[in-house]
Design goal:
about 15% strand, DNA polymerase, domain 1, binds S-adenosyl-L-homocysteine, binds iron/sulfur cluster, TIM Barrel, two-stranded parallel sheet, alpha/beta, globular
Length: about 375
């Protein structure tokens, strides 16, 4: 029987304390936790049986309750700039997408040594933004902390690269899965885990104000990105149902709260959609909002999603929009180059696979 079919817990989702508790309860010394985590996160063993500094009976005992990997690699999609998208099958037959972006040109045009992974936090998404593939077929379930951490370990195994930057911008709304998100962040940032600096981790949210405040209190300096996509409530209401629940005023109150706890600048993400949110008036209001919280603005022209009929504005409009923001003294980026479509349209691969396998019905068109 493969680990994936076992009815056991994945070791990838346990903190050092969780494992110490297990060993203490089992009448063992707590330092066994450190040994096990070294095998997992440093030696990267694939089986508990390879943990040779544990006695055979102890390995057996561990195997009765735990396994290592929760997922299998089923598909890779690459693009010219070597951004690659991986499709992983989870223990229950669901699929999740993870994107690997090896290096990108920095603002100064120089090649950076960043190796970024874009991780998913849920299968599907309940928030149903009208431009997003992840929301198209609704929400299936939260990912466990092990499945979030597992995406990183799988990508490092497949690519042979060491990831040094993580963005929670894949499928799902991380702040709707905050318990597992925080557990995964602890494993990712701890010296006993994946040991990635919190400053190299960005959590993106569509604006769950109370959860933003909760995450602000998590005592590591992670970064926050807000999927704003509309500078006023009327525009945001059109494309992001979440805005009905937490309007811009409440959202920005939570961002002020965040700023009291963290030093890093907040990013405002803004997809440009023709005739929806790309007016110069929206640009001016966006600039004011960004200034009010000292945020930077990332502009992303809409990427085509199969089944949706939104259109990306012309390059001229994108530049004019950008110039208004930049002209107000806001640090802003505009990503026009192709190849990122594989990244931004996260959710499409999974949607195709699950629809083809009859796991979910073909989504109903959710356009205008
Ligand atoms: N749910 C969180 C995390 C997912 S991030 C959030 O919404 O922030 C996914 C990012 O991809 C978001 O910024 C989202 O707005 C963006 N995105 C979704 N569909 C897109 C599309 N068709 N074109 C460009 N960006 C898109
Ligand atoms: Fe969910 Fe984010 Fe997509 Fe909106 S943009 S549907 S919140 S994943």
């Amino acid at each position: 029987m493969s680990a994936i079919e076992k009815n056991t817990t994945s070791l990838l989702g346990l903190s050092k304390k969780d494992l110490e508790t297990f060993f203490t309860n089992a009448g063992e010394k707590p330092y066994r936790a450190k040994q096990v985590q070294e095998w997992i996160f440093q030696q990267r063993v694939q089986e508990i049986s390879e943990m040779t500094n544990l006695s055979a009976p102890l390995r057996e005992r561990l195997s009765a309750e735990f396994h290592l990997s929760d997922m299998t690699h089923v598909e890779t999609k690459g693009s010219a700039d070597t951004t690659r998208k991986f499709l992983f099958r989870l223990h229950d037959g669901r699929y999740v997408e993870t994107v690997f972006i090896p290096a990108s040109k920095g603002l100064n045009g120089r090649q950076s040594d960043r190796k970024t992974i874009c991780v998913s936090s849920q299968v599907g998404c309940a928030f149903g933004c009208k431009f997003c593939a992840s929301g198209l077929a609704g929400f299936t379930r939260n990912l466990s902390a092990a499945e979030i951490v597992g995406q990183m370990m799988m990508v490092e195994k497949i690519t042979g690269d060491t990831i040094n930057n993580i963005v929670f911008m894949g499928m799902g709304e991380p702040l709707a899965n905050i318990k597992n998100l925080i557990q995964s962040l602890e494993i990712i940032t701890s010296h006993w885990g994946l040991n990635i600096g919190a400053r190299h981790i960005t959590v993106s949210t569509s604006g769950l104000a109370p959860a933003i405040k909760k995450l602000a209190e998590f005592p590591v300096p992670i970064r926050l990105a807000i999927s704003l996509h509309g500078a006023t409530d009327d525009v945001r209401d059109l494309i992001m149902p979440v805005n009905k629940k937490w309007q811009i005023k409440e959202l920005f109150e939570s961002l002020h709260y965040w700023r009291k706890h963290k030093k890093q600048k907040i990013s405002l993400e803004y997809i440009l959609i023709q005739g929806v949110n790309d007016s110069m008036e929206q640009a001016s209001i966006l600039a004011k909002r960004a200034k009010g919280i000292n945020a930077k603005v990332n502009l992303i022209p809409y990427n085509t999603v199969e089944g949706l009929d939104w259109v990306r504005p012309s390059e001229e409009v994108c530049y004019a929009f950008r110039d208004i923001i930049a002209g107000a003294g806001i640090n802003t980026t505009l990503r026009l180059e192709k190849g990122h479509d594989i990244n931004a349209a996260c959710g499409q691969l999974r949607l195709k696979k699950e629809t083809a396998e009859g796991i979910i019905p073909a989504p109903v068109k959710a356009g205008r």
